[in-house]
Design a protein that fits this description.
Oligomer: single chain
Number of strands: 29
Number of helices: 17
Bound molecules: oxalic acid, manganese (II) ion
Radius of gyration: 23 Å
Helix content: 25-40%
CATH architecture of the largest domain: Alpha-Beta Complex
Protein backbone atom coordinates (compact mmCIF):
# COMPACT_ATOMS: atom_id res chain seq x y z
CA UNK A 1 0.00 0.00 0.00
CA UNK A 2 1.15 3.52 -0.72
CA UNK A 3 -0.03 7.10 -0.44
CA UNK A 4 0.97 7.65 -4.09
CA UNK A 5 -2.34 7.36 -5.92
CA UNK A 6 -0.77 6.70 -9.34
CA UNK A 7 1.24 3.80 -7.97
CA UNK A 8 -1.66 2.40 -5.97
CA UNK A 9 -3.94 2.49 -8.98
CA UNK A 10 -1.34 0.95 -11.30
CA UNK A 11 -0.77 -1.94 -8.86
CA UNK A 12 -4.52 -2.56 -8.77
CA UNK A 13 -4.77 -2.51 -12.56
CA UNK A 14 -1.85 -4.91 -12.97
CA UNK A 15 -3.30 -7.23 -10.36
CA UNK A 16 -6.68 -7.28 -12.15
CA UNK A 17 -4.91 -8.10 -15.41
CA UNK A 18 -2.44 -10.73 -14.17
CA UNK A 19 -4.46 -12.40 -11.32
CA UNK A 20 -1.67 -13.11 -8.83
CA UNK A 21 -2.36 -15.29 -5.83
CA UNK A 22 -0.64 -12.84 -3.46
CA UNK A 23 0.69 -9.31 -3.56
CA UNK A 24 3.84 -8.45 -1.64
CA UNK A 25 5.17 -4.91 -1.22
CA UNK A 26 8.95 -5.22 -0.80
CA UNK A 27 10.54 -3.41 2.14
CA UNK A 28 14.08 -4.52 1.36
CA UNK A 29 14.58 -5.78 4.94
CA UNK A 30 16.90 -8.65 5.93
CA UNK A 31 13.95 -10.71 7.20
CA UNK A 32 12.12 -10.30 3.93
CA UNK A 33 15.21 -11.38 2.02
CA UNK A 34 15.65 -14.44 4.26
CA UNK A 35 12.05 -15.49 3.62
CA UNK A 36 12.59 -15.08 -0.09
CA UNK A 37 15.78 -17.14 -0.01
CA UNK A 38 14.05 -19.88 2.01
CA UNK A 39 11.16 -20.05 -0.44
CA UNK A 40 13.53 -20.18 -3.42
CA UNK A 41 15.53 -22.97 -1.77
CA UNK A 42 12.25 -24.87 -1.33
CA UNK A 43 11.14 -24.26 -4.93
CA UNK A 44 14.52 -25.05 -6.51
CA UNK A 45 14.99 -21.49 -7.82
CA UNK A 46 18.04 -21.32 -5.55
CA UNK A 47 20.49 -24.13 -4.87
CA UNK A 48 22.60 -23.76 -1.76
CA UNK A 49 26.35 -23.57 -2.41
CA UNK A 50 29.04 -24.58 0.12
CA UNK A 51 28.11 -22.38 3.11
CA UNK A 52 31.51 -22.85 4.77
CA UNK A 53 33.54 -21.49 1.86
CA UNK A 54 30.72 -19.29 0.46
CA UNK A 55 28.33 -18.17 3.22
CA UNK A 56 25.12 -16.64 1.88
CA UNK A 57 25.89 -17.74 -1.70
CA UNK A 58 23.34 -19.44 -3.94
CA UNK A 59 23.21 -20.86 -7.44
CA UNK A 60 20.38 -20.18 -9.85
CA UNK A 61 19.99 -22.22 -13.04
CA UNK A 62 17.98 -20.42 -15.66
CA UNK A 63 16.07 -22.03 -18.46
CA UNK A 64 18.73 -22.99 -21.06
CA UNK A 65 16.91 -20.90 -23.66
CA UNK A 66 17.06 -17.81 -21.44
CA UNK A 67 20.69 -16.90 -20.81
CA UNK A 68 21.33 -13.49 -22.40
CA UNK A 69 19.82 -10.23 -23.55
CA UNK A 70 17.53 -10.58 -26.56
CA UNK A 71 18.12 -7.53 -28.77
CA UNK A 72 15.94 -8.81 -31.61
CA UNK A 73 12.80 -8.63 -29.43
CA UNK A 74 13.75 -5.46 -27.54
CA UNK A 75 11.68 -2.49 -28.74
CA UNK A 76 11.50 1.25 -28.30
CA UNK A 77 7.86 2.28 -28.64
CA UNK A 78 7.84 6.01 -29.37
CA UNK A 79 4.87 7.60 -31.09
CA UNK A 80 7.08 8.57 -34.07
CA UNK A 81 9.15 5.78 -35.62
CA UNK A 82 12.04 8.13 -36.42
CA UNK A 83 12.41 9.05 -32.76
CA UNK A 84 13.56 5.47 -32.10
CA UNK A 85 15.95 5.60 -35.07
CA UNK A 86 17.66 2.93 -37.18
CA UNK A 87 19.55 1.82 -34.06
CA UNK A 88 16.38 0.40 -32.44
CA UNK A 89 13.55 -1.97 -33.17
CA UNK A 90 10.36 0.09 -33.09
CA UNK A 91 6.76 -0.77 -32.45
CA UNK A 92 3.82 1.59 -32.46
CA UNK A 93 2.88 2.16 -28.77
CA UNK A 94 -0.83 1.24 -28.88
CA UNK A 95 -0.09 -1.99 -30.77
CA UNK A 96 2.75 -2.83 -28.39
CA UNK A 97 0.55 -2.22 -25.34
CA UNK A 98 -2.19 -4.46 -26.77
CA UNK A 99 0.29 -7.23 -27.57
CA UNK A 100 1.69 -7.10 -24.03
CA UNK A 101 -1.77 -6.94 -22.42
CA UNK A 102 -2.69 -10.20 -24.12
CA UNK A 103 0.50 -11.83 -22.83
CA UNK A 104 0.04 -10.53 -19.28
CA UNK A 105 -3.60 -11.64 -19.02
CA UNK A 106 -3.74 -14.11 -16.13
CA UNK A 107 0.03 -14.70 -16.27
CA UNK A 108 0.55 -14.50 -12.49
CA UNK A 109 -2.09 -17.08 -11.52
CA UNK A 110 -0.77 -19.12 -8.61
CA UNK A 111 2.20 -16.75 -8.23
CA UNK A 112 3.11 -13.91 -5.90
CA UNK A 113 3.27 -10.46 -7.42
CA UNK A 114 6.12 -8.48 -5.89
CA UNK A 115 6.04 -4.67 -5.86
CA UNK A 116 9.67 -3.53 -5.87
CA UNK A 117 10.22 0.21 -5.30
CA UNK A 118 13.82 1.14 -6.10
CA UNK A 119 16.09 4.12 -6.41
CA UNK A 120 18.81 4.29 -9.07
CA UNK A 121 21.63 6.18 -7.36
CA UNK A 122 22.25 7.25 -3.75
CA UNK A 123 18.90 7.62 -2.03
CA UNK A 124 19.48 11.31 -1.23
CA UNK A 125 21.13 12.36 -4.52
CA UNK A 126 19.43 14.90 -6.78
CA UNK A 127 20.97 12.95 -9.70
CA UNK A 128 19.12 9.74 -8.72
CA UNK A 129 15.82 8.60 -10.20
CA UNK A 130 13.26 6.12 -8.86
CA UNK A 131 11.22 3.34 -10.33
CA UNK A 132 8.88 0.53 -9.32
CA UNK A 133 9.20 -2.93 -10.80
CA UNK A 134 6.26 -5.29 -10.52
CA UNK A 135 7.47 -8.85 -11.04
CA UNK A 136 6.43 -12.44 -10.45
CA UNK A 137 10.02 -13.62 -10.07
CA UNK A 138 11.52 -13.91 -6.57
CA UNK A 139 14.95 -14.29 -8.26
CA UNK A 140 14.46 -10.82 -9.76
CA UNK A 141 13.55 -9.41 -6.33
CA UNK A 142 16.69 -10.90 -4.74
CA UNK A 143 18.84 -9.45 -7.54
CA UNK A 144 17.16 -6.04 -7.45
CA UNK A 145 17.90 -5.88 -3.73
CA UNK A 146 21.63 -5.99 -4.50
CA UNK A 147 21.65 -4.00 -7.73
CA UNK A 148 19.50 -1.05 -6.57
CA UNK A 149 18.56 0.78 -3.37
CA UNK A 150 15.35 -1.21 -3.06
CA UNK A 151 12.49 -1.02 -0.55
CA UNK A 152 11.03 1.40 1.98
CA UNK A 153 13.48 4.30 1.52
CA UNK A 154 12.88 4.27 -2.25
CA UNK A 155 9.10 4.17 -1.73
CA UNK A 156 9.36 7.13 0.66
CA UNK A 157 11.25 9.11 -2.01
CA UNK A 158 8.64 8.18 -4.64
CA UNK A 159 5.88 9.34 -2.30
CA UNK A 160 7.76 12.61 -1.75
CA UNK A 161 8.59 13.27 -5.40
CA UNK A 162 5.59 11.75 -7.12
CA UNK A 163 7.45 10.54 -10.25
CA UNK A 164 8.75 7.08 -10.98
CA UNK A 165 9.37 4.72 -13.89
CA UNK A 166 6.78 1.94 -14.15
CA UNK A 167 8.28 -1.45 -14.97
CA UNK A 168 6.10 -4.53 -15.35
CA UNK A 169 7.81 -7.90 -15.60
CA UNK A 170 6.58 -11.46 -15.80
CA UNK A 171 8.62 -14.51 -16.61
CA UNK A 172 5.50 -15.82 -18.33
CA UNK A 173 6.18 -19.35 -19.58
CA UNK A 174 9.74 -18.60 -20.82
CA UNK A 175 8.68 -19.37 -24.36
CA UNK A 176 11.18 -17.53 -26.61
CA UNK A 177 8.38 -16.97 -29.11
CA UNK A 178 6.45 -15.06 -26.47
CA UNK A 179 9.34 -12.92 -25.20
CA UNK A 180 9.33 -9.13 -25.57
CA UNK A 181 11.16 -6.28 -23.86
CA UNK A 182 9.19 -3.10 -24.58
CA UNK A 183 10.11 0.46 -23.68
CA UNK A 184 7.71 3.41 -23.74
CA UNK A 185 10.10 6.28 -22.99
CA UNK A 186 7.45 8.98 -23.51
CA UNK A 187 5.44 7.39 -20.68
CA UNK A 188 8.44 6.37 -18.51
CA UNK A 189 7.22 2.78 -18.78
CA UNK A 190 8.81 -0.65 -19.37
CA UNK A 191 7.03 -3.94 -20.09
CA UNK A 192 9.01 -7.17 -20.13
CA UNK A 193 7.62 -10.67 -20.64
CA UNK A 194 8.97 -14.18 -21.04
CA UNK A 195 12.54 -13.90 -19.70
CA UNK A 196 14.17 -14.11 -16.28
CA UNK A 197 17.64 -13.11 -17.54
CA UNK A 198 19.27 -10.08 -15.84
CA UNK A 199 19.34 -7.56 -18.66
CA UNK A 200 15.78 -8.47 -19.69
CA UNK A 201 14.30 -8.81 -16.22
CA UNK A 202 16.15 -6.61 -13.69
CA UNK A 203 14.38 -3.58 -15.08
CA UNK A 204 16.39 -1.03 -13.11
CA UNK A 205 19.51 -1.88 -15.08
CA UNK A 206 19.50 -1.71 -18.88
CA UNK A 207 15.81 -0.89 -19.36
CA UNK A 208 15.57 1.98 -16.86
CA UNK A 209 19.12 3.20 -16.16
CA UNK A 210 20.09 3.20 -19.86
CA UNK A 211 17.16 3.10 -22.30
CA UNK A 212 14.58 5.16 -20.39
CA UNK A 213 17.22 7.29 -18.62
CA UNK A 214 19.05 8.18 -21.85
CA UNK A 215 15.75 9.48 -23.25
CA UNK A 216 15.05 11.42 -20.03
CA UNK A 217 18.62 12.70 -19.89
CA UNK A 218 18.26 14.27 -23.31
CA UNK A 219 15.24 16.32 -22.28
CA UNK A 220 16.79 17.22 -18.91
CA UNK A 221 20.34 18.02 -20.08
CA UNK A 222 22.41 15.16 -18.68
CA UNK A 223 23.95 11.88 -19.93
CA UNK A 224 23.05 8.26 -19.09
CA UNK A 225 25.90 6.08 -20.33
CA UNK A 226 27.12 2.47 -20.48
CA UNK A 227 30.29 3.32 -18.57
CA UNK A 228 32.29 2.19 -15.57
CA UNK A 229 33.58 4.83 -13.15
CA UNK A 230 37.01 4.34 -11.60
CA UNK A 231 39.11 6.58 -9.33
CA UNK A 232 42.90 6.57 -9.69
CA UNK A 233 44.72 7.92 -6.64
CA UNK A 234 48.39 8.85 -6.96
CA UNK A 235 50.90 8.45 -4.13
CA UNK A 236 50.45 12.20 -3.56
CA UNK A 237 46.81 11.59 -2.66
CA UNK A 238 45.38 13.19 -5.80
CA UNK A 239 42.40 11.25 -7.27
CA UNK A 240 41.23 11.44 -10.88
CA UNK A 241 37.95 9.81 -11.88
CA UNK A 242 37.65 8.20 -15.30
CA UNK A 243 34.40 7.09 -16.98
CA UNK A 244 34.88 4.39 -19.62
CA UNK A 245 32.49 2.85 -22.14
CA UNK A 246 33.13 -0.65 -23.52
CA UNK A 247 30.60 -3.01 -25.08
CA UNK A 248 29.15 -5.80 -22.94
CA UNK A 249 31.66 -8.42 -21.74
CA UNK A 250 34.72 -6.39 -22.85
CA UNK A 251 36.28 -5.93 -19.40
CA UNK A 252 34.51 -2.98 -17.75
CA UNK A 253 34.32 -4.86 -14.46
CA UNK A 254 38.02 -5.76 -14.66
CA UNK A 255 39.09 -2.17 -15.39
CA UNK A 256 36.84 -0.77 -12.66
CA UNK A 257 38.68 -2.75 -10.00
CA UNK A 258 42.13 -3.37 -11.47
CA UNK A 259 45.16 -3.99 -9.30
CA UNK A 260 48.16 -2.00 -10.63
CA UNK A 261 51.51 -3.67 -11.40
CA UNK A 262 54.06 -3.88 -8.58
CA UNK A 263 55.98 -0.71 -9.45
CA UNK A 264 52.85 1.39 -8.87
CA UNK A 265 53.54 1.30 -5.15
CA UNK A 266 51.42 3.90 -3.37
CA UNK A 267 48.81 4.18 -6.14
CA UNK A 268 45.23 3.17 -5.36
CA UNK A 269 42.31 2.24 -7.56
CA UNK A 270 38.82 3.11 -6.31
CA UNK A 271 35.72 1.47 -7.78
CA UNK A 272 32.63 3.64 -8.16
CA UNK A 273 30.80 1.54 -10.74
CA UNK A 274 31.34 -1.11 -13.42
CA UNK A 275 28.49 -0.66 -15.92
CA UNK A 276 26.42 2.53 -15.83
CA UNK A 277 27.24 6.19 -15.31
CA UNK A 278 24.91 9.17 -15.07
CA UNK A 279 26.68 12.50 -15.60
CA UNK A 280 25.58 16.07 -15.22
CA UNK A 281 27.39 19.43 -15.57
CA UNK A 282 28.23 20.94 -12.19
CA UNK A 283 28.53 24.61 -11.26
CA UNK A 284 32.30 24.38 -11.75
CA UNK A 285 31.83 23.43 -15.42
CA UNK A 286 32.96 19.85 -14.88
CA UNK A 287 30.85 16.73 -15.40
CA UNK A 288 29.84 15.05 -12.13
CA UNK A 289 28.92 11.38 -12.17
CA UNK A 290 27.04 8.84 -10.10
CA UNK A 291 26.74 5.11 -10.50
CA UNK A 292 22.99 4.47 -10.39
CA UNK A 293 23.55 0.85 -9.31
CA UNK A 294 24.57 -0.57 -5.94
CA UNK A 295 25.81 -3.98 -7.04
CA UNK A 296 27.67 -5.80 -9.78
CA UNK A 297 26.05 -8.17 -12.27
CA UNK A 298 29.30 -9.39 -13.76
CA UNK A 299 30.36 -12.04 -16.26
CA UNK A 300 31.81 -15.00 -14.32
CA UNK A 301 33.97 -16.84 -16.92
CA UNK A 302 37.50 -15.50 -16.97
CA UNK A 303 37.24 -13.96 -13.50
CA UNK A 304 40.35 -15.25 -11.75
CA UNK A 305 43.21 -14.40 -9.40
CA UNK A 306 45.30 -13.32 -12.39
CA UNK A 307 42.65 -11.22 -14.12
CA UNK A 308 40.54 -9.69 -11.37
CA UNK A 309 41.58 -10.64 -7.82
CA UNK A 310 39.28 -7.98 -6.33
CA UNK A 311 36.26 -9.57 -8.00
CA UNK A 312 37.26 -13.01 -6.80
CA UNK A 313 37.62 -11.70 -3.23
CA UNK A 314 34.13 -10.16 -3.24
CA UNK A 315 32.51 -13.39 -4.44
CA UNK A 316 33.16 -15.43 -1.30
CA UNK A 317 29.95 -14.42 0.45
CA UNK A 318 26.42 -13.07 -0.16
CA UNK A 319 26.51 -13.57 -3.92
CA UNK A 320 24.05 -15.06 -6.39
CA UNK A 321 25.64 -17.14 -9.15
CA UNK A 322 23.61 -17.74 -12.28
CA UNK A 323 24.44 -20.62 -14.66
CA UNK A 324 27.91 -21.48 -13.35
CA UNK A 325 29.27 -25.01 -12.78
CA UNK A 326 29.81 -26.64 -9.38
CA UNK A 327 32.83 -28.48 -7.88
CA UNK A 328 32.74 -31.73 -5.92
CA UNK A 329 32.60 -29.76 -2.66
CA UNK A 330 29.77 -27.58 -3.95
CA UNK A 331 31.70 -24.40 -4.72
CA UNK A 332 30.83 -22.28 -7.77
CA UNK A 333 33.13 -22.79 -10.75
CA UNK A 334 33.62 -21.29 -14.18
CA UNK A 335 36.13 -21.56 -17.01
CA UNK A 336 39.36 -19.73 -16.19
CA UNK A 337 38.73 -19.63 -12.42
CA UNK A 338 41.39 -22.15 -11.36
CA UNK A 339 42.50 -25.66 -12.29
CA UNK A 340 39.83 -27.48 -10.31
CA UNK A 341 37.68 -29.86 -12.34
CA UNK A 342 33.95 -29.22 -11.81
CA UNK A 343 31.54 -32.12 -11.41
CA UNK A 344 28.32 -30.44 -12.55
CA UNK A 345 27.71 -28.10 -15.46
CA UNK A 346 25.42 -25.08 -15.61
CA UNK A 347 22.44 -27.15 -16.69
CA UNK A 348 22.84 -29.43 -13.66
CA UNK A 349 24.24 -32.33 -15.70
CA UNK A 350 27.48 -34.20 -14.92
CA UNK A 351 30.29 -32.09 -16.39
CA UNK A 352 31.63 -33.42 -19.68
CA UNK A 353 34.07 -31.15 -21.57
CA UNK A 354 33.00 -32.88 -24.79
CA UNK A 355 29.47 -31.54 -24.30
CA UNK A 356 30.46 -27.93 -23.56
CA UNK A 357 31.79 -25.57 -20.92
CA UNK A 358 30.89 -26.06 -17.26
CA UNK A 359 29.72 -22.47 -16.97
CA UNK A 360 27.49 -20.89 -19.58
CA UNK A 361 29.69 -18.29 -21.40
CA UNK A 362 27.40 -15.48 -20.18
CA UNK A 363 27.04 -16.90 -16.65
CA UNK A 364 26.93 -14.18 -14.04
CA UNK A 365 27.50 -13.21 -10.43
CA UNK A 366 25.39 -10.69 -8.56
CA UNK A 367 27.02 -9.12 -5.52
CA UNK A 368 26.64 -5.93 -3.43
CA UNK A 369 29.14 -3.29 -4.48
CA UNK A 370 30.31 -2.69 -0.91
CA UNK A 371 31.89 -6.15 -0.87
CA UNK A 372 34.47 -5.11 -3.45
CA UNK A 373 37.88 -4.48 -1.78
CA UNK A 374 38.38 -1.40 -3.98
CA UNK A 375 34.88 0.00 -3.34
CA UNK A 376 34.92 3.72 -2.59
CA UNK A 377 32.50 5.52 -0.27
CA UNK A 378 32.40 8.22 -2.92
CA UNK A 379 29.89 5.92 -4.66
CA UNK A 380 27.41 7.14 -2.01
CA UNK A 381 28.27 10.81 -2.47
CA UNK A 382 24.98 12.51 -3.43
CA UNK A 383 26.91 15.04 -5.53
CA UNK A 384 28.77 12.36 -7.49
CA UNK A 385 32.45 12.46 -8.48
CA UNK A 386 34.11 14.86 -10.97
CA UNK A 387 35.14 13.18 -14.23
CA UNK A 388 38.62 14.01 -15.61
CA UNK A 389 38.52 11.76 -18.68
CA UNK A 390 36.00 9.83 -20.76
CA UNK A 391 37.35 6.70 -22.43
CA UNK A 392 35.75 4.76 -25.27
CA UNK A 393 36.98 1.35 -26.33
CA UNK A 394 36.14 -1.72 -28.36
CA UNK A 395 37.44 -5.20 -28.97
CA UNK A 396 39.43 -4.84 -32.21
CA UNK A 397 42.02 -7.39 -33.37
CA UNK A 398 43.54 -5.00 -35.89
CA UNK A 399 44.02 -1.35 -36.78
CA UNK A 400 42.92 0.52 -33.66
CA UNK A 401 45.85 1.75 -31.52
CA UNK A 402 46.31 1.03 -27.81
CA UNK A 403 45.24 4.55 -26.88
CA UNK A 404 44.56 7.90 -28.54
CA UNK A 405 43.28 11.26 -27.41
CA UNK A 406 40.61 13.21 -29.26
CA UNK A 407 41.49 16.62 -30.69
CA UNK A 408 38.40 18.27 -29.19
CA UNK A 409 35.08 17.38 -27.57
CA UNK A 410 33.47 17.24 -31.03
CA UNK A 411 36.17 14.93 -32.35
CA UNK A 412 35.72 12.86 -29.16
CA UNK A 413 32.02 12.49 -29.94
CA UNK A 414 33.02 11.22 -33.39
CA UNK A 415 35.46 8.75 -31.77
CA UNK A 416 32.61 7.46 -29.60
CA UNK A 417 30.17 7.31 -32.51
CA UNK A 418 32.72 5.39 -34.62
CA UNK A 419 33.26 2.68 -32.03
CA UNK A 420 33.11 -0.89 -33.27
CA UNK A 421 33.67 -4.15 -31.45
CA UNK A 422 33.59 -7.89 -31.92
CA UNK A 423 30.34 -9.26 -30.43
CA UNK A 424 30.32 -11.34 -27.21
CA UNK A 425 28.07 -13.84 -25.43
CA UNK A 426 26.27 -11.09 -23.46
CA UNK A 427 23.58 -11.03 -26.14
CA UNK A 428 22.11 -13.90 -28.16
CA UNK A 429 23.47 -14.21 -31.72
CA UNK A 430 26.85 -14.76 -33.36
CA UNK A 431 29.98 -14.09 -31.30
CA UNK A 432 33.13 -12.40 -32.68
CA UNK A 433 31.50 -10.42 -35.49
CA UNK A 434 32.64 -6.77 -35.77
CA UNK A 435 29.69 -4.44 -35.44
CA UNK A 436 29.40 -0.68 -34.91
CA UNK A 437 28.59 -0.03 -31.28
CA UNK A 438 28.64 3.76 -30.79
CA UNK A 439 29.54 4.74 -27.23
CA UNK A 440 28.87 1.02 -26.37
CA UNK A 441 25.20 2.10 -26.44
CA UNK A 442 23.97 0.22 -29.53
CA UNK A 443 21.75 -2.08 -27.45
CA UNK A 444 20.88 0.59 -24.88
CA UNK A 445 20.20 4.01 -26.39
CA UNK A 446 16.48 4.68 -25.94
CA UNK A 447 16.19 6.99 -28.95
CA UNK A 448 17.60 7.84 -32.39
CA UNK A 449 21.42 7.79 -32.31
CA UNK A 450 21.53 10.90 -34.53
CA UNK A 451 19.66 12.85 -31.82
CA UNK A 452 21.89 11.25 -29.19
CA UNK A 453 25.05 12.52 -30.90
CA UNK A 454 23.46 15.97 -31.25
CA UNK A 455 22.79 15.84 -27.52
CA UNK A 456 26.43 14.94 -26.80
CA UNK A 457 27.52 17.86 -29.00
CA UNK A 458 25.43 20.33 -26.94
CA UNK A 459 27.69 19.80 -23.94
CA UNK A 460 30.19 22.37 -25.20
CA UNK A 461 27.42 24.90 -24.44
CA UNK A 462 26.46 23.33 -21.14
CA UNK A 463 29.85 23.05 -19.42
CA UNK A 464 33.15 24.84 -19.90
CA UNK A 465 35.46 22.37 -18.19
CA UNK A 466 34.55 19.16 -19.98
CA UNK A 467 36.68 16.03 -19.60
CA UNK A 468 39.09 15.05 -22.36
CA UNK A 469 37.93 12.11 -24.49
CA UNK A 470 40.16 9.12 -25.26
CA UNK A 471 39.84 5.84 -27.18
CA UNK A 472 41.57 2.59 -26.14
CA UNK A 473 41.91 -0.93 -27.52
CA UNK A 474 43.29 -3.69 -25.25
CA UNK A 475 42.54 -6.43 -27.79
CA UNK A 476 45.02 -6.08 -30.69
CA UNK A 477 46.40 -9.40 -31.96
CA UNK A 478 49.58 -10.21 -33.89
CA UNK A 479 49.83 -12.35 -37.05
CA UNK A 480 49.79 -15.53 -34.92
CA UNK A 481 46.60 -14.52 -33.14
CA UNK A 482 48.28 -13.64 -29.83
CA UNK A 483 47.24 -10.58 -27.85
CA UNK A 484 49.89 -7.84 -28.21
CA UNK A 485 49.02 -6.04 -24.97
CA UNK A 486 48.80 -7.90 -21.63
CA UNK A 487 45.72 -5.96 -20.46
CA UNK A 488 44.17 -6.34 -16.96
CA UNK A 489 46.44 -4.74 -14.29
CA UNK A 490 48.83 -3.46 -16.97
CA UNK A 491 46.05 -1.22 -18.29
CA UNK A 492 47.13 0.98 -15.36
CA UNK A 493 50.00 2.14 -17.56
CA UNK A 494 47.49 3.56 -20.03
CA UNK A 495 45.34 5.10 -17.29
CA UNK A 496 48.47 6.82 -15.94
CA UNK A 497 49.23 8.26 -19.40
CA UNK A 498 45.63 9.48 -19.71
CA UNK A 499 45.88 11.25 -16.37
CA UNK A 500 49.26 12.74 -17.31
CA UNK A 501 47.63 14.10 -20.46
CA UNK A 502 44.75 15.55 -18.44
CA UNK A 503 47.30 17.32 -16.28
CA UNK A 504 49.27 18.48 -19.34
CA UNK A 505 52.39 16.71 -18.11
CA UNK A 506 53.32 14.75 -21.24
CA UNK A 507 53.46 15.60 -24.94
CA UNK A 508 51.69 13.92 -27.79
CA UNK A 509 52.21 12.55 -31.29
CA UNK A 510 49.59 14.40 -33.34
CA UNK A 511 48.26 12.07 -36.07
CA UNK A 512 45.31 12.32 -38.48
CA UNK A 513 43.18 10.05 -36.27
CA UNK A 514 44.04 11.66 -32.91
CA UNK A 515 46.85 12.22 -30.43
CA UNK A 516 48.94 9.14 -29.69
CA UNK A 517 51.46 8.68 -26.85
CA UNK A 518 55.14 8.99 -27.51
CA UNK A 519 56.16 5.39 -26.71
CA UNK A 520 58.59 6.61 -24.03
CA UNK A 521 55.68 8.19 -22.14
CA UNK A 522 54.03 4.81 -21.47
CA UNK A 523 55.57 3.39 -18.31
CA UNK A 524 57.20 0.14 -19.51
CA UNK A 525 59.07 -0.95 -16.38
CA UNK A 526 58.63 -4.73 -16.09
CA UNK A 527 56.17 -4.66 -18.98
CA UNK A 528 55.77 -7.97 -20.80
CA UNK A 529 55.48 -6.23 -24.17
CA UNK A 530 58.74 -5.46 -26.00
CA UNK A 531 59.42 -1.97 -27.33
CA UNK A 532 58.90 -3.00 -30.99
CA UNK A 533 55.42 -4.33 -30.17
CA UNK A 534 54.59 -1.22 -28.15
CA UNK A 535 55.60 0.92 -31.13
CA UNK A 536 53.36 -1.18 -33.37
CA UNK A 537 50.48 -0.65 -30.96
CA UNK A 538 51.00 3.09 -31.35
CA UNK A 539 51.29 3.23 -35.15
CA UNK A 540 48.73 4.57 -37.62
CA UNK A 541 48.29 2.69 -40.91
CA UNK A 542 46.99 5.54 -43.10
CA UNK A 543 45.68 3.35 -45.93
CA UNK A 544 43.80 1.01 -43.60
CA UNK A 545 42.45 4.00 -41.65
CA UNK A 546 41.21 5.65 -44.85
CA UNK A 547 39.20 2.49 -45.53
CA UNK A 548 37.90 2.53 -41.95
CA UNK A 549 36.87 6.17 -42.28
CA UNK A 550 34.81 5.32 -45.35
CA UNK A 551 33.08 2.50 -43.46
CA UNK A 552 32.35 4.90 -40.61
CA UNK A 553 30.93 7.38 -43.15
CA UNK A 554 28.69 4.67 -44.60
CA UNK A 555 27.50 3.76 -41.11
CA UNK A 556 26.79 7.36 -40.10
CA UNK A 557 25.01 8.20 -43.36
CA UNK A 558 22.20 5.76 -42.60
CA UNK A 559 21.06 8.33 -40.01
CA UNK A 560 20.20 10.68 -42.90
CA UNK A 561 19.12 14.24 -42.28
CA UNK A 562 19.02 13.89 -38.52
CA UNK A 563 22.75 13.25 -38.36
CA UNK A 564 24.43 16.41 -37.02
CA UNK A 565 26.47 18.04 -39.81
CA UNK A 566 29.26 18.51 -37.29
CA UNK A 567 29.91 14.74 -37.26
CA UNK A 568 30.52 14.59 -41.00
CA UNK A 569 32.63 17.76 -40.77
CA UNK A 570 34.81 16.05 -38.12
CA UNK A 571 35.04 12.91 -40.25
CA UNK A 572 36.00 14.98 -43.32
CA UNK A 573 38.83 16.55 -41.32
CA UNK A 574 40.18 13.11 -40.42
CA UNK A 575 39.84 11.91 -44.04
CA UNK A 576 41.65 14.99 -45.35
CA UNK A 577 44.47 14.63 -42.82
CA UNK A 578 44.86 10.95 -43.76
CA UNK A 579 45.10 11.76 -47.48
CA UNK A 580 47.61 14.51 -46.78
CA UNK A 581 49.77 12.12 -44.75
CA UNK A 582 49.63 9.29 -47.31
C1 LIG B 1 25.55 -6.24 -18.96
C2 LIG B 1 25.55 -6.14 -20.43
O1 LIG B 1 25.00 -7.19 -18.39
O2 LIG B 1 26.05 -5.12 -20.94
O3 LIG B 1 26.10 -5.33 -18.32
O4 LIG B 1 25.05 -7.05 -21.11
MN1 LIG C 1 26.69 -3.67 -19.54
Amino acid sequence: MTSNQVLQQWVEEVSELTHPENIHWCSGSDEENQQLVDSMLASGDFIELNQETHPGCYLHRSDPNDVARVEQVTYICTSQRDDAGPNNNWMEPAGARAKMRALYAGCMRGRTMYIVPYCMGPIDSPLSRCGVEITDSPYVVANMRMMTRMGSAALARIEREGTFVKGLHSIGDLDPERRFIMHFPEELMIQSFGSGYGGNALLGKKCHALRIASFQARTEGWLAEHMLIVGVESPRGETHYIAAAFPSACGKTNLAMLIPPAQYDGWKIWTIGDDICWMQPGEDGRLWAINPESGFFGVAPGTAAGTNPNALAMLNSNAIFTNVGVTADNQPWWEGKDDEVPVTDWRGNPYDPEVGPAAQPNSRFTVPMKQCPSYSDEAENPGGVPISAIVFGGRRERLVPLVMESKSWQHGVLLGASMASETTAAATGAVGVVRRDPMAMKPFCGYNFADYWSHWLTFTNRADNLPSIFHVNWFRKDQDGNFMWPGFGDNMRVLEWIINRCKGEVGINETPIGGLPLPADINSTDLDTDSATLEQLLEVDSAAWSAEVEQIREYLEQYGDRLPARMIAELDKVAAALSASA
